[in-house]
DNA sequence: CTAGGGTTAG
């Protein structure tokens, strides 16, 4: 079976929304300077007497003498604080008597502790305050909260805030924003609820912060409720609040609400426009995002760095290179180019627009590179199929001392998957284990995909089973992996498991359908077709293609063709599937005309497509056409034939009886022929009874694949037909001793969604007697009209030799008979066999179709046989 | 003293 019949790569993943943890860029490294400047505004109030006679009791009772000393000490400590000398301030504080210290001195020290983020000193001041018996009132409490929160002890800060019930909004906001920053959105939300309970009015900061939290928690209803509350308090026209709402709605996929918010803004600023652009992009409406950008320029709003970054992403998504170049120019003009984030995004834009040179140019000119730059340039090489370069870049990056993150690793694992580099893949897997990155879901998914692509499903499954919370990509990857590795049962089983937890999507369909195709599970396939129609997945080319392929392989070519005709934009893979489909069913002329139609619509054939058309020609005996296509590969399309193309040509020669030509042809192949090519010739020797050539050919084969039983059986049959029974016996003992892997012949038929599986000589089936008597009756009739029992077919597979199965016991006969007995009259009997059909069963099929008046479609491991009125569609070509 | 919009992977 040619490889081309499988559909395109199935693991194209859905792009789904990933709420990002935004780093707060406002926290620049010079925040200390910022605090030092603002701190000077917190110098002691001018009227000290007034201050002392207020609620602070301790100093109010001081005598004039102590007062002066105290004044001196307090002033000294505050002086140290002013200069940022925490050490001396602390020393003096510790050495001072309770009676000497004033509230404001404590405040100054706490402020400095906060600025220097010295939690230890802060705590000491706190304990001094407590042991001094100072009342922690609103002023001192606020300062303590500020210190604790600033130093990162949110729990202590929260506790003090709860105790003093300060209604200073900034303190609440401060705590809330810190919780948001560390990702503890639940705690932030609980603060918000407490504020509401206490009747503390929020301000714009409160709302922007809480919206961010609820968005991160994906709480749409809570966002809406905050929306209502903020508007009730009169913040409906505050740009920051409305901008936050726009972002929140977009991230919750409430696109319409976001647009409504924007429309209500009387004076949208650059952030509002940026929010619209990014919102459109993240909701898959990049083109709309670009429109907003143009509109924004019409309104005279100046773009900034964020604008450009957003628009570049949109541009990358729509793949518009020329627009991207214009944006590049904008970046230079506005001074954004040179910024790492801008350059990273620009690089990625070029890469996604397919312009690798542009991406590398940006990369080499970058002064500063980050992990994102490297990941992007690696992904750029992967996108172009330059997998080895990508892997090299990965190594180079590490030698520069940059540590790959989950993004980088995913890209490189993907490169290994695409290039079938199992060894490199394993290396990176080890790296991942060492760095504890296997906990990252996309990384695990990428690894599974890599192992699946390399055909190691056990390894893939091990990873799959260790993922605690699997997403739809995990399931799809695993199902698709089983499908592509010819493990359709495992694929379907997993598909059932998946549905207990998740709803399948379009990609799931494209992953399961090949499993149905593999098993010829028509009922299941139809069920999926229904689901696809209800969900509107047919518009996805991958899905449509998989559906066509499924129907082809379930034997319903006409239906497959109808679906094929309905697909408006066909790609090369779809055309290839249809051509291969016709080929499998022996509709060579249709295959050729489909190929020509494809040429007319301007799609150039690739090498896989040529395999399909050559395969079709050989299976329909189209000798002349076959050679024409084969020769055109080089002359017209500049495609160098691969082994599989040569194999088709050998097949074609063999089928048309040109055995010696085929032998000579094999000798001229510039690539070393494999066992399959010689095997095609060997079976040709069987059909044309050429024992001498068969022996010569078999030598080549046994050298290449000494453990493949198939070829021993093939040769044994050739000997059997030539009545060289001694030779047959020799081979039989060889096979018996060899302990070779045997393919057991088995056939199955699906009736009302249930699979009935038959193996050769099986008498355990509940209907075994009925089947047997039907077959006996048919056999007698056959003999009566001149068919005779052809002993030469008796050795069609290795199993037969061991079990000495009688002719009549072949699994495909049993399955066909079972179908005739159990399907309503007029319904086509569809049987699938895992090996090639044997000649006697083929005769039986033809005869059955005539005497019972039934259409029988038999799919074997090589092609389809449509039995109708005593004739088979293969016309002897199989 | 606290805020709203931004880059990389499958």
UniProtKB/TrEMBL annotation:
Record's compositionally biased regions (Polar residues): 1-15
Keyword terms: Repeat
Region (Disordered): 1-21
UniProt GO MF annotations: mRNA binding; zinc ion binding
Biological processes per GO annotation: RNA modification
Keyword Repeat annotated: yes
PANTHER family the UniProt entry points to: DYW DOMAIN-CONTAINING PROTEIN, PENTATRICOPEPTIDE REPEAT-CONTAINING PROTEIN
Protein's name in the database: DYW domain-containing protein
PPR repeat positions: 168-202, 269-303, 370-404, 471-501, 571-605
Family: Belongs to the PPR family. PCMP-H subfamily.
Domain DYW: 786-878
Organism (species): Phaseolus coccineus (Scarlet runner bean)
InterPro entries: DYW_dom (IPR032867), E_motif (IPR046848), PPR_At4g14850-like_plant (IPR046960), PPR_rpt (IPR002885), TPR-like_helical_dom_sf (IPR011990)
A Pfam family annotated for this UniProt entry: E_motif
